[in-house]
Amino acid sequence: MNEITMILQADDLIRLALKEDISQEDVSTNAVMPTAKLGRVELICKEDGVVAGLPIFARVFQLLDPDTQIFFTYKDGDQVTKGQRMATVTGDIRVLLSGERVALNYLQRMSGIATYTRKMATVLEGSKTVLLDTRKTTPNNRIFEKYAVKVGGGSNHRYNLSDGVMLKDNHIAAAGGITQAVSQAKAYVPFVRKIEVETETLDQVREAVEAGADIIMLDNMSMEDMKKALSMIGGRAQTECSGNVTLENLARLRDLGVDFVSSGAVTHSAPILDISMKNLQPL
Q: Tell me, what's the pLDDT at 151?
């Protein structure tokens, strides 16, 4: 997920967020600022972290008024520290006030994800294992959250259900077993699509290998069973470890030797990064 892809999809989603926040009018702003007046406000970081979402922050104000000017002192992926000024926003004060919350919601959320991801990716540095996100994202915000994962140093798993074949426990149950599920998937999808199978036991791992799965997910297995599974797979498929992986328990997986570790926590459990708009001044 790169910045261009995100921006191409962003406007409609941002407009929905603005409509949610301004269903009829911004009563508070209209009460104190009945007519247009030029002003400037600063974007201030209130805690250390990794910034992500600056283009989306800017786009919120530009959709409200294309004449709004934003001057950034940082770019996505930069490390920021408490107290630093990240940007100045100049424009119609009514726009600065009405767009503030939506713009900050995006920026705080995305920067929080990037910060948490950076911490997790750092744990895996020097190993062969790549950190992946999941589809456990906020509805209608996946494009922003997966972009933030990339900014933080992680990698994206499939974007949506159209993006790849992953045969999870319920797919396997519906097909009647791993062998049947893989066989049906191979018959259905183009040969260029990889087939991933979720396994929870060593017997399932063995069946997935024999069925010809391209990627085998080791889901919620003990360390002992994962080591046995990797030996059983023997390089005949790529491997992914999954199941309640967080920053607190990631280190134990660092030297296991799996190709990928996927974590829903990078999106669903990352705290926001505290960022504020301060020091508004009429010009």
A: 97
Q: Identify the CATH homologous superfamily for domain 122-268.
A: Aldolase class I (3.20.20.70)
Q: Which residues pair with 87 in a beta bridge?
A: 43, 72
Tell me where in the chain the CATH 3.20.20.70 domain(s) lie.
122-268
Cα 73 to Cα 7, 50, 230, 278: the distances in Å are 20, 14, 46, 16
The segments of the chain whose pLDDT lies below 50 read none
Q: What are phi and psi of 216, to 5 degrees?
A: -120, 120
Segments of the chain assigned E as strands? 38-45, 49-50, 69-72, 79-80, 85-92, 130-132, 165-167, 195-199, 215-219, 238-242, 260-262, 275-282
Total-model pTM:
0.94
Indicate which residues carry an active-site annotation.
136
Residues with Cβ within 8 Å of 164's Cβ and at least 6 positions away in sequence, in order, are 158, 193, 194, 196
Query: For residue 151, which amino acid is it?
Result: V
Q: How far apart are CA 123 and CA 145, in angstroms?
A: 21
Q: In CATH, which of 3.40.1190.10, 3.90.1150.10, 3.90.1170.20, 3.30.70.240 is domain 3-115+271-282?
A: 3.90.1170.20
